[in-house]
Design a protein that fits this description.
three-stranded antiparallel beta sheet; single chain; about 20% helix; 14 strands; alpha+beta; elongated
């Protein structure tokens, strides 16, 4: 995995140059920040949610020529899927045994995820649909559990700076303006809340687990988990205004449990009652400026490669201009003194007059043709 990039969005475009799709997308990103996001939510909430075509290379979607899957999203999706299985198995098992760990276990588990994958994700949360979380670790004054109690439970842990082992744990399902199940208002988790809950269409998949203990007979256990086909969904980029206060994308995988574990829980098939979310800052992800379908990639065609070259995207540049190189097409060669492709960052920072007369490959006349790009 590539090293962590502390990338604030930087404008390389010269003020005298005409604006392009990159500049328009950048203006929208920069128009929302931690100081004004609550006001933006109240006045024009659509501005805190971007289109799907801002980031391409989303895992599970077809890749275009020379495109690579977004490394951070792939890893976040695998981790979210893993935790969704884990919580589904725990919750279904507790219906039979009443051995569910206390609520702090969720926080510890999420902190462990961020500690182990600190360069991958800055936020981890577990959210349950309205009135579907039935914790049996709540007790009355006599110590008797209260199985019929249900709540909107939303443990959220974030790591403000991946360079430090410092975590903030929050119960985000209680308090003013935190009702994430309220469909009448945007509320920050909504982009991923609607991916699986309430009531996703794809049914859960049942798995058979064989438990073997020394000197004891084997025990078969049927549990339900996320679907086999596309078990992880990814949100469009959105500005998280309450906690992270930055543009992020979330990998989302569903938690499966019985709807009413307090009564006749095994008489009704399980359903998706919650979701695990792993947050990835938008600054960790790469854009693709090379030519392509602008309906799928808003930045397509903003690279400045000449007609004698072909554009090849490069990883590690984040939401910045210059994440590409311009390699000579077949039948062309590099000018004397140019060793390898022209780098996008150099092209973007060049004076317009220099760009007009430079970064061009030379057509080969009567010479041996090399079709290699490096």
């Amino acid at each position: 995995m590539r090293s962590f990039l502390v990338l604030t969005i930087v404008i390389f475009a010269q003020s005298l140059q005409a604006q392009d799709a990159f500049d328009h997308a950048l203006e929208k990103l920069l128009s929302v920040n931690w100081e004004n996001c609550k006001k933006v939510l109240d006045e024009r909430e659509k501005d805190v949610l971007l289109e799907d075509n801002i980031i391409n290379g989303i895992p599970g979607k077809p890749l275009g020529p020379d495109e690579r899957p977004q490394e951070y999203l792939s890893a976040a999706g695998q981790l979210a899927h893993n935790r969704a299985f884990f919580y589904s198995f725990i919750l279904q098992h507790v219906n039979f045994t009443s051995e569910e760990p206390g609520f702090l276990y969720y926080y510890y588990s999420q902190m462990a995820d961020l500690a182990a994958y600190g360069g991958l994700s800055t936020g981890s949360s577990v959210v349950f649909d309205k009135n579907t979380y039935w914790p049996n670790w709540y007790t009355d004054r006599s110590g008797t559990s209260i199985p019929s109690f249900h709540t909107n439970y939303f443990p959220y842990v974030r790591r403000p700076d991946p360079l430090y082992e410092f975590f903030i744990a929050t119960e985000a399902g209680v308090g003013e303006n935190t009702d994430y199940t309220d469909g009448n208002r945007y509320q920050w988790p909504k982009p991923w809340f609607s991916k699986w809950i309430p009531k996703a269409m794809s049914p859960p998949v049942n798995y058979t687990i064989i438990l073997e203990k020394l000197f004891k007979p084997k025990k078969h256990m049927i549990v339900f988990g996320p679907p086999e086909s596309q078990p992880v969904e990814f949100t469009p980029p959105y500005f998280e205004c309450n906690y992270a206060n930055e543009w992020i994308m979330s990998a989302v995988s569903p938690i499966v449990n019985y709807e009413r574990p307090d009564i006749n829980f095994n008489s009704i098939p399980p359903s998706y009652t919650g979701a695990v979310n792993m947050d990835v800052p938008l600054a960790y992800l790469d854009i693709n400026q090379c030519p392509g379908d602008v309906s799928k990639n808003v930045f397509a065609g903003t690279a400045k490669c000449k007609d004698s070259t072909q554009c090849i995207p490069l990883p590690g540049f984040g939401i910045n201009r210059g994440g590409y190189m311009c390699a000579c097409k077949s039948g062309y060669r590099y000018p004397d003194g140019q060793f390898g492709p022209f780098m996008g960052l150099e092209i973007e920072n060049a004076d317009p007059n220099i760009h007009t007369s430079s970064f061009e490959c030379i057509k080969i006349e009567g010479e041996k043709i090399c079709s290699c790009v490096y």
